[in-house]
Design a protein that fits this description.
Elements lengths: L4 H30 L19 H7 L4 H15 E8 L5 E7 L5 E4 L3 E3 L2 E7 L2 E5 L8 E4 L5
Length: 147
């Protein structure tokens, strides 16, 4: 039988290291379980910051009252997302519009898009939405640029 003394020492050393790790783990968990104080039940004191005041932040950033009045239009246009347009002759056509993050639906010109808006007109890259067909457009949506 042929034996390699170098290999025998490597096996002995690795066995010693494995059993040393087992012993260290047993000592750790033994000390952890035998300690009488339960530190997990004490919740740390957390101070919460007051909520930020949007008006104060706007004043700090140099906002004016005119810019504050334009905010509802921006929020109105953010409700609608134009994803596709089929423009026909004389303002006829349809648009694929997503409302409030819901899946997109196709709407023909004159169709009710939302409870208070109708699709007024479409052209190859835009769609206009307003309270009625004859009223001025409340929002003009534009197709996103292709990437």
């Amino acid at each position: 039988m042929v034996s390699n003394p170098g290999n025998r020492w490597a096996v002995a050393a690795s066995t010693f290291l494995v059993w040393g790790g087992v012993a260290a783990s047993a000592v750790y968990w033994g000390m952890k379980l035998s300690s009488g104080a339960d530190t997990s039940s004490v919740a740390p004191a957390v101070r919460t910051a007051p909520p930020p005041d949007p008006a104060a932040i706007a004043r700090l950033l140099g906002s004016s009252p005119v810019a504050a009045a334009a905010a509802p239009v921006a929020s109105l246009s953010s409700r609608f997302q134009l994803l596709g347009v089929v423009a026909g002759p004389e303002g006829a056509g349809a648009a694929l519009i997503a409302v409030d993050g819901k899946p997109p639906k196709p709407y023909r010109v004159g169709a009710q898009v939302d409870e208070s808006f109708v699709l007024q007109s479409v052209d190859p890259r835009h769609a206009s939405i307003g309270p009625s067909l004859k009223a001025p457009a409340a929002v003009t949506l534009e197709l996103p640029l292709k990437r």
